[in-house]
Amino acid sequence: PAAPRRLFVLGIGFFSLCFLMTSLGGQLSARRPGDSPFTIRTEVTGGLESRGALRKMSDLLELMVKRMDALARLENSSELHRAPGHGHGHGHSALDRGEGGERERERNIKTGSPAPPPGGAFGEAIAQNVSDIAVKVDQILRHSLVLHSKVSEGRRDQCEAPSDPKFPDCSGKVEWMRARWTSDPCYAFFGVDGTECSFLIYLSEVEWFCPPLPWRNQTATQAAPKPLPKAQAVFRGDLSHLLDLMGSGKESLIFMKKRTRRLTAQWALAAQRLARKLGGTQRDQKQILVHIGFLTEESGDVFSPRVLKGGPLGEMVQWADILAALYVLGHSLRITVSLKELQSNLGVPPGRGNCPLTVPLPFDLIYTDYHGLQQMRQHMGLSFRKYRCRIRVIDTFGTEPAYNHEEYATRHGYRTNWGYWNLNPKQFMTMFPHTPDNSFMGFVSEELNETEKQLIKAGKASNMAVVYGKEASIWKGKEKVLSILSQHMEVHGTVFYESQRPPELFIGFGFPYEGPAPLEAIANGCVFLQSRFSPPHSSLNHDFFRGKPTSREVFSQHPYAERFIGRPHVWTVDYNNSEELEAALKAIMRTQVDPYLPYEYTCEGMLERIHAYIQHQAAGALRQHRVGDEPVNTPDWRCSGFLGSLLEHQQTFHTLSGAESPMCIPNGQILNPVPT
């Protein structure tokens, strides 16, 4: 029958042409998702000549399909005409037509005439079209192979790892790609397909281990155009949009939003004060990503349950205040609390995190914590190294240079799960000013106006003490101390304090360390009584500090309050010495103490400090410096440098107790910018 023959011939022609196309480079398998079946990838192995040949072959294939379709329609039309009027009459049966055809073949045999080709005119047309196409394909292949061989000879050297001293790691990276390019789908996403050229293109244009290939179109790797002028930052007093940016769904976020909403009026007033102080100073609006890693599900989100159970919430207090300060200063914020959001905002390619970002980092600064830092390193590939100077790590207890410097930490036994990041130590931002190695971020406490201070003094509950901390473990082993306290005062827990008048005494039993609650109590007119540690607590002798990237010794529950506030607001005594404890309690009961809040922990103080960091802590100045074998700070952190530019605003430096002093606190080297 004619129909099967037509299908057979059509199939032979179609698959023959497909075979010829795929044999010329095998590039159909390298097409990207979404490409048509006839779209050929030529970035890697195809030059202009082979691209032209393949394009012509593709055109011939499409022409063949069109001709087949037209001929099929023509044949169908011919059959329709023959069916009613073929031969000498109408309505012949199929048997009659078959018999007539047999008689015609017999006549041809007797007379020696050649038999017509099977299928009649349609078969002749098929044969002629296939013959024409075969001739054209043969011509194209011959021409293309000649040109391709010439190009390959010139290209072979260009697709070998060059020995360029400026790119010493190139050959080693090519070897790695040969063995492991299938280990992460991100390589295929960037066009790697197992060929040498694809390795070199990736390593020169996506990563930067190899020199650019001279035969490649360099428009993609040319220097980016100059950025457009940035918008100017304008102080904000309405925080409603910030509350929307913070999201919902987590108890921790609800807690942070409540705190921000409660402090809105103080933030707005502080913004007005700082705006007057800065005058007409122009400030570029920064694009800032805030990724709170400890709130992600991948890190366990251990803090959200604490909101309901009454555990330490100092980290959430600090993060709420950081968000508020950045927003009030007028910067553009993006807030993420999930790994998926982080990947989307950074431009992480699909895969396992071994490749760089798909786009240049769109953020000037990134504020995160150690959990977020780990997540970024896992998913940013080499982009983490490229952009790490833009990262600021909120680090409650600080990171010392010996733990931060990977080589030094490894050789001298300072490696921990939280160290060896090779950042500049100033990129770690602490809750309290522990050390000049790191930057002091801080938080804020509610500031009372004069009327509120008078009400506090008049309404203070005399002879009442409240224990700092809600967890039951805090009370264990404190029976002797509680017995002495109960002889002089009525003792309650923190929950009672939160719903009653402020007490006279706020008592610390040794934990939590360095939280915000003592400052809030002092700001409300309480005296803070805490225990002196002997020996001091550190990572060498206490489980809480073990593994943290610091060897700092803590001599009391709240060293900042002990050192920089002191008496009469803070009393640090040995709880094992009953006489010293009783003497302190009697002195506290005789002393009238007013509410006190250090400037550094007011909204205005924090705004000023973060403004100074953003304006003067430039990414280019955050390179790690070393002297011999020791990792050290860059000089601009020291007293006359890093924050010294604040002196341009007629600021002086003084101790946190308020007394005028030289620029640097002796032994501490801590800078405290306060306006005159």
Topology:
Elements lengths: L1 H22 L24 H38 L8 H18 L9 H36 L13 H11 L4 H5 L6 H11 L33 H7 L4 H12 L1 H15 L8 E5 L12 H6 L4 H15 L3 E5 L2 H8 L18 E4 L1 H10 L3 H5 L3 E4 L6 H4 L1 H7 L15 E3 L8 E2 L9 H10 L1 E8 L10 H10 L1 E3 L1 H5 L4 E6 L8 H7 L3 E11 L16 E3 L2 H7 L4 E4 L4 H13 L12 H14 L8 E3 L2 E3 L18 E3 L19 E3 L1
Parallel strand pairs: 1-2, 1-3, 3-4, 4-5, 5-6, 7-8, 7-9, 9-10, 10-12
Antiparallel strand pairs: 10-11, 13-14, 15-16
Number of DSSP E strands: 16
How much β-strand is present in the residues?
A: 5-15%
Count of discrete alpha- or pi-helical segments spanning 4 or more residues: 24
Shape: elongated
Indicate the percent of residues in helices: 40-55%
**Lateral arrangement of strands in the main beta sheet:** 2-1-3-4-5-6
- Mean pLDDT, all residues: 76
Distance between the termini: 104 Å
Which terms summarize this structure?
six-stranded parallel β-sheet; Rossmann fold; 676 residues; 24 helices; disordered C terminus
Could you write a compact summary of the structure shown?
This protein has 676 residues and is of the alpha/beta class. The protein contains 24 helices and 16 strands. The relative contact order is 0.07.
Question: What does this protein structure show overall?
Answer:
- Helix 19 (479-488) packs parallel to helix 23 (578-590).
- The protein has helices at residues 2-23, 48-85, 94-111, 121-156, 170-180, 185-189, 196-206, 240-246, 251-262, 264-278, 304-309, 314-328, 339-346, 370-379, 383-387, 401-404, 406-412, 450-459, 479-488, 494-498, 517-523, 559-565, 578-590, 603-616, and strands at 287-291, 332-336, 365-368, 391-394, 428-430, 439-440, 461-468, 490-492, 503-508, 527-537, 554-556, 570-573, 625-627, 630-632, 651-653, 673-675.
- The protein has 24 helices and 16 strands.
- Strands 2-1-3-4-5-6 form a six-stranded parallel beta sheet, sandwiched between helices. Strands 7, 8, 9, 10, 11 and 12 form a six-stranded mixed beta sheet that branches. Strands 13-14 form a two-stranded antiparallel ribbon.
- Residues 22-51, 79-119, 146-157 and 623-676 have low confidence and may be disordered.
- Helices cover 44% and strands 10% of the residues.
- The longest helix has 38 residues, at 48-85.
